[in-house]
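If you are new to this repository, start here. Below is one unmodified record pulled from the training split, so you can see the exact layout before writing a loader.
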Amino acid sequence: MKTQHDIEKEQEARASLPVQEQQVYSAQTFPQPPRQKGRRWVVISAIAVMLVLVLSVGALFIPGVIQHPGGQGQVTPTSPATQVKPTAPTTSTPGSDLTPAPVPGIVFGPQACPNGIGDPAHWNAIIGTNNGKQHVETVSCANIMDNRSLQALVTVRHSDASSTLDVYVFQDVTSAKPAQIFKLPGLVKGNAMISGYNTVMTAEVDANSTLNAGKPVAATTPDLFREFDWSASQGNMVQTAFPGIFPDLTRYQAEADQTLVNKGQDTWKNDPQAVAKALAVRFLNWNRTLTTNVLSGGGPQDVYATVQVQEVLLQGPPSQGPSILVTLSRLEGNTHNMWVAIAVQDGTSLTLTNIQPRSLVANPVKFEGKGSAFENTIGMAYVLDHSYTKVGQAIVTGPPGYGMGNLPYSTKVSYDLSFKQGPQEGIAEVALTSPMGDAPAIMVKVLLDPQPRVAVGPVSGPVALQKPGYWESVLGIGSSTGSVGTVSYANLKGDPSLQALVPVYYTNGKPVAYYVYDNITNVHPVQLPGMPQTKSAVISGASTIITQDVDKNSSDIYREYQWSGKTGTFAQVAFPGLYPDLTRWQAELDQAAVTMGSDSWKLNAVQTTQHALKFLNRSATNPLRLLSGGGPHDLTATVQAAPYPQGGGVATTTITLKRLEGNTNGGIWEITAVQSKDFGITSPPFGPSTLITSPVTVKGFGWQFEGEVGNVVIQDHLYTEIGREIASGTGGFTKSSFTVDVPYTSSFQGGAQEGIVVLYENSGGGIPVVAMEKVLISA
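And here is the target side for that same chain:
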């Protein structure tokens, strides 16, 4: 029979999947333990989910529940800096998750220490304690390093007002100088012990939690529980996540609960249906009649179970009510232990696809999946901390312009944790919104990184600031004056601080106004300058503000504003795209349409170039050639337009494309540069802030045909020609430079618009467009 150790090693040998795009960290690493004592929990989850879906919908789908937990890779933990990589799914059969015998010589749980080693006085001399200010409080031993040797967990209590605890782990415990392999100091009212899985569990006071905030230390209660596991590859202890969601979020709490259950308290935890039902009441507020159905496992000899919980609607048969599928496992795989819910899935169509169970998530965390939308609203995304408190939330919507149906979503949720000295265990949840009443949810266990990072695109704001009343108070707006619309947030200044875009709808006939605020959690948020008057404004996927305005009674002027640290204001910039979109507003609408299945050619770099040539009424005499990039995981691509002989040389045009906003997960291609070695524009230079005025002086070079290099054309935001002049060379049929002044007339007089300076070659041959430069066109 294979041992647990053998099974875990085989699983870890499987190839890892790439780190998900949603987590972007600094260059530090967040170590991944080389083996997982709780791997059986993962196998349990995969098996149970597989069986449930086979039975309930006749489809086989194993979600990414094979996440290997990670933790802090420092002897003294610091903030982690990278996401743990998920491992490839395993294919297990029922029964393979039964608890096997441990590796010979290794015992799960605390053991008796060698003679004399368990005496606190022995460690007082080694650590240098018992000096009146601190003393060794407890000593316990176990196979913490997963080999036959014993390691010692030593706790040191300080005699300060906070009764702080320092936690040590030593190896070579019988030597004169044991080696320290772990230290976690300063746990207020702390405690530490060895778990039944040979991990180190700690408890401490989170002084700013909902339980302890505002209380003196003497009145506080330890409420933050963490777990550390040995990593052979990292050579130290790393923080890990307990698989459980409910009734306990951490192993420390679960083992304490198990002790009470053994004494006859809370025996409902021995019933998987009771645990699943209690979860629905606790998190989903399902207070009407609930029915449960065990779809797999759940017997006295089973270590896993899958239970369907369904709520009866106010009207209609029970089969029409919302339902969830709860995956449960026996605590630590022991069939004599209580049941713990380790996963919650929607019983219908709601999915959460990008967050792996027990992974470290960044702040803000991205939620991606699909769900049934009603008026484009799918539901809510939540982040729950170690006390099940909602510390982050956001409305989940489908792509713009799609009101109903099973729609994809992508939402970034920022959160604010009360404990910031390291990761804590928590939950990522998506709850469906239904016009019929209560709706189901998906819940995934995660480790929460407390430190905010710079995210790109809109994120949710602090929970307390999401109510319009907060901003109406900041702006001094009363019900007779106006109202605040939906406020959006982002790292608009390029650092981890959040800024808010606040729309105000006035009742006195004034047009809608948009304001941008910084220091948003302060008593007096600061209004940032540079936000223009506009018809409509939103935060883009690039953390800029994009606006929509009217040009000759048509809402077709799209502008973009980016924060400038040099000037301390928002400045208009140009989107780099030339085609198929000239502005970011249009590009993001295009991306939404492609996500929903339209215009799939925009996902192919060569096809995008072909469409560009058709749009420009040009054609190549030879097929286009992909020179580089363009693959599903590439951010850039270069395509060569068909070359043809001219002037004794070979004229070629190279088209550069980039993924919209760097998204390789279905991001569309945008042409950002059209260049040639034989024809080109040298002035004005391309740049996001290049502003031209009429007449604009254009300089360049190219082969002449009867003294003419070509035509310089100015195109506006609709690709409409608003200016044209012949670019004349020095005469003849040689290569020549040129300078030409091109006057133009802009239809939009309310400011600058995005446009293009184009150089067309003169011969009308096979080359499509010689050169294009993106600019801002002044009125």
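Two things worth knowing about this chain: The mean pLDDT is 83. The chain is about 10% helix and 35% strand.
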